[in-house]
Design brief:
6-stranded mixed sheet; 3-stranded antiparallel sheet; 238 residues; Muramoyl-pentapeptide Carboxypeptidase, domain 2; alpha+beta
Length: 238
């Protein structure tokens, strides 16, 4: 009986020792390969930190002249949005341009305009067009209609790019009054005395603000609008 009990005791100790050894071996194996083990449902992390992409270089600030023009628009309480500089190919571009949002007189067709053009157009609308309408026509300007600003195209009948191709020109076609009248360049340039006087006055005022001003008197291509731009040396008024 003693011998049998001793044998059972020895067998039990051997079993415990074997289990402990097996557990230690498994732990060692798991430790050795744990770097490649990914628990189910989780994403493995890289052993080395991933370098983030280099931050993009912020756009260069606009030139001093453009910043001064922005300040001028703000001082006149003109609402606008600066636009990013763009080159459209074929020599066409919109550099130092803005989008006019509110100049005090509702205006249709306004797209990208160089800031200098925008500032002069806003001032012309407020301080020339509106007062002339009140004085000569006895009504307020409800809206100024235009044919737009930026347009990548050459001058009519020429291979040279128009100032429209540089967002540096605007074409004005008509004026809508508070009493319902609509004064258009096409129909009223040679209209009755008052409407003709109004158009002549706003045309003359434009010649003091824009470098180039073209009317129906210039050529047939301008029979239905005034063309204003800030190109050239200035002083060209027709």
């Amino acid at each position: 009986m003693v011998n049998a009990g001793l044998m059972v005791e020895r067998a039990t100790k051997y079993s415990v020792w074997r289990s402990a050894a097996l557990a230690a071996t498994m732990a060692s194996m798991l430790a050795a390969c744990s770097g490649d083990l990914v628990p189910k449902g989780r994403v493995a992390r890289a052993s080395k930190p991933v370098k983030s992409a280099r931050p993009t270089t912020p756009p260069a600030p606009p030139p001093l002249e453009t910043r001064q023009c922005f300040a001028k628009l703000q001082s006149q309480s003109v609402a606008f949005t600066p636009l990013p500089d763009q080159n459209f190919g074929g020599g066409c571009s919109a550099i130092g341009s803005v989008k006019l949002l509110d100049i005090g007189v509702p205006t249709s067709g306004l797209g990208a305009m160089t800031c200098n053009l925008a500032a002069n157009f806003a001032a012309w609308s407020r301080y020339a067009v509106q007062p002339a309408a009140r004085l000569i026509l006895g009504a307020e300007i409800e809206k100024i209609e235009t044919f737009g600003t930026y347009n990548c195209r050459p001058i009519a009948g020429s291979g040279k790019l128009s100032e429209h191709a540089h967002s540096n020109a605007i074409d004005v076609s008509a004026f809508v009054l508070s009493d319902g009248r609509r004064i258009s360049v096409e129909k009223d340039w040679h209209g009755d005395k008052r409407t003709r006087q109004f158009l002549e006055v706003v045309h003359a005022s434009a010649c003091k603000r824009f470098n180039t001003v073209l009317s129906p008197d210039y050529n047939a291509a301008h029979h239905d609008h005034f063309h204003f731009d800030m190109g050239g040396r200035g002083g060209f008024c027709r």
